[in-house]
Amino acid sequence: MKKLFFFLASIIIYTFPVLSNPIVLPKAYISELKFDINNNWVLEISFEAEAPYYHQQYDSICISTSYGFSRINLEYVKDSSLIMVVDSDSLLKPLAINKSGDCIKLYSYISNQYFEDAGIDSLIFGNFKGSKFDSIPSGYSIARIYLNTFTLDKSPTIGLPNDTIGTCGTLTGFMYDKNNNLISSGTFILNNPIIFQNNSMFSTKVFSRKFTVEGMLQQTACCTFRGIVFDTLRLDVYPDSIYYQDIHISSDIVVGIKERKTAEGKNFNIINYPNPFNLSTTFYVKVPNQFAGEQGIINIYNVNGQLIKTIRVKGNSRVTWDSKNSFGQILSSGVYYYQFVLGRQIIKNGSMILLK
């Protein structure tokens, strides 16, 4: 089980008019939010491992939502705990959270001192500006994974340290450099490390939320990381779902990464029609005249990167695939990938959808 990773770069101070002369220490964090079957909310609050909660340290921990502001009743809180679980009944004044969307803020106060520029921990979801979640489905939670990262979680762990089980979807596809060469190896990190498969497809786990990103990290030979820019990806990720999206890098990458270069020349082409298709689709292959006599192959892969069918082609030709694998079994509906290989070189990649 992976624990929360909280990184505190500096002490941020906040002043709130409810209490006089408070100092706010951002030691408490919103860790997880869940609604029960009756739409009653439960909120998990976590503390830094170096600074567990002590009654004598704080006057109050307060929560605000779009419905108002209230303090946590400290009688409900165990001293020295690193995790606090509260609900509306745990507050001095009952407070609602709108399941359709809300902005929750958390404050931690110590009295008799005054500092400007306060720090507030917050969680935004639903129809509020800046939200990365449309809603919280029944049985799910929104959980904090890193200091600035919340994710939708289909396996809530209210009252326990958060883990990443049930928090990720899978992103898969092909990766190209700025010269449109296919990249088949290298050490890259998006949310998590990117893994390359034998067919050059990549896959990586992505935390479940509205995901907009235009960069990742690449590890160099000297064990340092540098930023890599690519065309913006926009996804709405849900746990245990698969998303197919190629990555087109627009910045330079470190020299020395193994690449499989695609053959140059606009006269190479392969398409399949119809797409989407039912039961069968036809591949139309076009090659330059100097390659007309060469034997090529079309490799077809499932979403897990497993080779399921190889079709041999020669020169300019067309060939029909009957949606069967190498054993003659008809495949189920879904997304499939294909590669056109000529002279041990990957020429083109594509995807297709089988619908029944």
Keywords:
single chain, 356 residues, mainly beta, Immunoglobulin-like
What can you tell me about this protein's structure?
This protein is an all-beta fold and 356 residues long. It has three domains: 23-153; 168-260, Immunoglobulin-like, CATH 2.60.40; 269-354, Sandwich (Immunoglobulin-like), CATH 2.60.40.4070. It has no helices and 28 strands. It has strands at residues 23-24, 28-35, 41-47, 60-65, 68-71, 83-87, 101-110, 121-126, 141-146, 149-153, 168-173, 175-176, 182-183, 188-189, 195-196, 202-207, 210-219, 225-236, 242-244, 247-248, 259-260, 269-273, 281-286, 295-301, 307-314, 317-321, 334-342, 345-354. Strands 1, 4, 5, 7 and 8 form a five-stranded antiparallel sheet that branches. Strands 6-3-2-9-10 form a five-stranded antiparallel sheet, with no helix packed on it. Strands 15-16-11-19 form a four-stranded mixed sheet, with no helix packed on it. Mean pLDDT is 79; it is low at 1-26, 112-118 and 255-265.
